[in-house]
Amino acid sequence: xxxxxxxxxxxxxxxxxxxxxxxxxxxxxxxxxxxxxxxxxxxxxxxxxxxxxxxxxxxxxxxxxxxxxxxxxxxxxxxxxxxxxxxxxxxxxxxxxxxxxxxxxxxxxxxxxxxxxxxxxxxxxxxxxxxxxxxxxxxxxxxxxxxxxxxxxxxxxxxxxxxxxxxxxxxxxxxxxxxxxxxxxxxxxxxxxxxxxxxxxxxxxxxxxxxxxxxxxxxxxxxxxxxxxxxxxxxxxxxxxxxxxxxxxxxxxxxxxxxxxxxxxxxxxxxxxxxxxxxxxxxxxxxxxxxxxxxxxxxxxxxxxxxxxxxxxxxxxxxxxxxxxxxxxxxxxxxxxxxxxxxxxxxxxxxxxxxxxxxxxxxxxxxxxxxxxxxxxxxxxxxxxxxxxxxxxxxxxxxxxxxxxxxxxxxxxxxxxxxxxx
Length: 422
Hints:
The chain contains twelve helices and 21 strands. It is an alpha/beta fold. The strands form five sheets. A nine-stranded mixed β-sheet has the order 5-4-6-7-8-9-10-15-14, with helices on both faces. It has a four-stranded mixed β-sheet with strand order 1-13-12-11. Helix 7 links the parallel strand 4 and strand 5 (162-165). It starts with 12 loop residues before the first helix and ends in a 5-residue tail after the last strand.
């Protein structure tokens, strides 16, 4: 791959910074006019004085938990308000009609999608992974509730690809469709493609049409990349969120992830507004120039670090090391976030359960969840009931293990991620 999705990916660092900060004041002014929550965040700020990263750091960070709370408060207090304020907590500049779709992430947090092509910005990542016009893409991200399926479909359409909307689950039907349609590319989690390929091996079905893949939603270590390469599939990864769309993507250099164009990415010390020195691990904070959902200094809760220097692939934007975990105890299992608050919801539904600790284990692509609960009295029936509650709340399966009262560690940890990322 010798060409870029856009030639500006090779623009010099100083040139890109000047261009982004030249656009930023007008973008902030527009956001302040159309998104009430952003207006509150920018109160007292001279947006036309935001000309570099030092002045950008004077704007307070808004974190995902605050976005969720703002939406919850608005939905309960503003029954007659316009959709962009009542549903989105004042963070969206668009409402019904201007929004083509609305999605829900755990919380629930609602996110708008406008009619703009490649709204989520993943076309650049698909291009870097080798996807081209007239490719057939088998999309195994969910098309329901969360925006992942639409993120990849709109990106593929922007490249001129055709898409099979496979969605999640139904391994045998996915295998049948792949065998019949012979797609050249796959988008989805690496764990699900591995399941499909292992099913193909068991069934004696050849899936030799698949040549490339773009993965997201899970870790994609070198060992798993090699596993796919041995089957003729060149896999790449992209990092994004349901709020911001695509944040950074892998290139043929295989050295970190290159930051997307049209966003300003900072790494800040968790819980503060202050950027950390280059190379230090901190929280990913993004300011997007998206005019429809104009998030400003939005704290993702994800941890990463800036890589020094430029990518050998020739793209000259900032690079990050990739996803390095969460600044809180929230973790991602099989492509879905699991929050400490969800564990608390499970406990609240069962009077017999006093405390609980969710242990996420296994190797990459083979995640397991075990909820250990202190229960009195404990029983197999209770364990089954709790397991059903876990699935209702998190949309994921978990084993439930009843343990004696007082036996869980008293360390404040609700979610313990002990997965092997080797």
